[in-house]
Amino acid sequence: NRQYHLAKRPTGEPDMDTFELVEADVPEPDANEVLVKTLYLSVDPYMRGRMRDAESYAEPWDVGEPMQAGVVGEVVASNHAAFGEGDVVVGNLDWAEYTAADGGELTAIDPDVAPVSTALGVVGMPGRTAYFGLLDVAGPKPGDTVVVSGAAGAVGSVVGQLAREAGCRVVGFAGSDTKTEWLTDELGFDAAINYKTTDDLSAALADAAPDGVDVYFDNVGGPITDAVFNQLNVDARVAVCGQISQYNAIELPTGPRKLGTLIQKRASVEGFLVSDFQPRFEEATTRLAGWVADGTIQYRETVTEGFENAPDAFLGLFEGENIGKQLVKVAER
Ligand code: NDP
Questions:
Q1: CATH no. for residue 235?
Q2: Residues annotated as region Disordered (predicted)?
Q3: Ligand 1 lined by 130 (C-beta under 6 Å)
Q4: Residues 17 and 71 in one domain
Q5: Which residues have a Cβ under 8 Å from the Cβ of 175 and sit 6 or more positions away?
Q6: CB distance 66 to 94 below 8 Å
Q7: Which of 132, 173, 219 to mutate to test the pocket of ligand 1 (most atoms within 8 A of CB)?
Q8: 248 in the same domain as 207
Q9: Cut 0.90: pTM above it
Q10: What is the pLDDT along the chain (333 residues), one digit of tens a residue?
Q11: Is residue 90 a contact partner of residue 72, using CB atoms and an 8 Å limit?
Q12: In sequence order, what DSSP letters do the residues of 81-111 get, joined into one string?
C-alpha cells in the first residue's frame, strides 16, 4: 500500500522533495469503517495551503504523515451497513492506494450515471464551486459581461458555461492557445485571452469586453486581476474563488492596488468557500449531473497515470499543464 507523506514544508514552489513515497500495510477496517481501494485521486491547488503551517480553512498537514485528497474508490471490505464490496464511493481520503475510512465520511456514486472520475471534477467539488460561486455569490444577469480567470481549469470551465447559460457575454483568461481555442470553439465563450502571449492584458480585455465587466470570477489574482479591476462597471460583483498566482509566493507584493475602482464603481468583492454551501451540495450535484448528461456542460480531464506520479500532477497545476480537471488514475475497477 503506497502512500505519499508530506516530507517537509516547502518554501516557495514545492518540488519532489516535498513528498515522500512510503510503503505501508493495507489497513484493517475497524467497526463502521470501510476499506477503499483508490481508483482516482484528485490533486487541487488548495493543497498548497495545507503544506503551510498556518491557520486556514483546511488544517495544515503534519510532516511525516499521509496527505489527504478527494478520492474516488472501490469498496473492498466493509464494516458499515451502508456500503458493500464493489460499491464506488467518493470521499476525502489519504494520498494512498488503500484507506480505511468511517462510512459516514463517504458518499456512494452511481457508475451508470456518469464516469466515476467526474465525482472529483465537473459534478464534484470543482463543479459545485463554480455553481455556488457564480450563481449565488456573483449573481449574473442576462446581458452581463462575465470574466473568468483560470478559465480552462476545473472550476473556470464550468463557470464560463454556466454564465453562457445565464445569457451573459463570457470572456476567459487561460495560459495556452489550445486552452483558449477550447473555450471559444467548444464551450461557447465569446472571447478568450492567452495571458502568457498577450503583452497588454488591459487592451486585450477592452477588445473582448467592450461594454466593461459586470461580473469577475477570480481564480488566479495577480496581473490578470489588476487588468480586470480597471474595467469593472458600476455595481460590478467580484467573486474571489482562488489566487493561484500567489500560492507559491514567499513574499506577497504590496497591494491591493486597485481598490479605488470599487469606490468609483460601487463594486463589491466577496470571497467564498464552497464548503459553506454544504447543505445545498445535493442540489448542485444533481443539477450539474443533469447538465453534463444533456450536453449543456462539457468537460475535460487531464489524467496522469500511476499513483507514483501524483506529485508531478500536483506540481503541474502551477505550470498550467492541465486542461480541465487534473486527476491521477491509480487503479482500474
Ligand atoms: P485548475 O484546474 O484551474 O488548475 C489550476 C490552473 O491555474 C492551471 O491549469 C493554470 O492554468 C492556472 N494557473 C497556474 N498558475 C497561474 C498563474 N500564476 N497565473 C494565472 N493562472 C495560473 O484548478 P481548480 O479549478 O481546481 O481551481 C481553480 C482555483 O479555484 C484555484 O485558485 C483554487 O484554489 C480555487 N478553488 C477555490 C475553492 C473555494 O471554495 N473558494 C474551491 C475549489 C477551488 P493556465 O494555463 O490558465 O495558467
A1: 3.40.50.720
A2: 1-15
A3: no
A4: yes
A5: 152, 194, 195, 196, 320
A6: yes
A7: 219
A8: yes
A9: yes
A10: 999 999 999 999 999 999 999 999 999 999 999 999 999 999 999 999 999 998 888 889 999 999 999 999 999 999 999 999 999 999 999 999 999 999 999 999 999 989 999 999 999 999 999 999 999 999 999 999 999 999 999 999 999 999 999 999 999 999 999 999 999 999 999 999 999 999 999 999 999 999 999 999 999 999 999 999 999 999 999 999 999 999 999 988 776 677 888 999 999 999 999 999 999 999 999 999 999 999 999 999 999 999 999 999 999 999 999 999 999 999 999
A11: yes
A12: TT--TT-EEEEEEESBSEEEEEGGG-EE--T
**Is 280 a member of any domain?**
no
Rounded to 10 deg, the angle between the 154-165 and 281-293 helix axes is 80
The verdict on residue 199 lying in a domain is yes
Residue 287 maps to a domain = no
Distance 169 CA to ligand 1 centre (A): 22
CB-based contacts of 313: which residues, under 8 Å, 6+ apart? 43, 304, 322, 326, 327, 328
Centroid of ligand 1 to alpha carbon of 136 (angstroms): 20
How far does the centroid of ligand 1 lie from the alpha carbon of residue 240, in Å? 12
Longest dimension (CA), the chain: 61
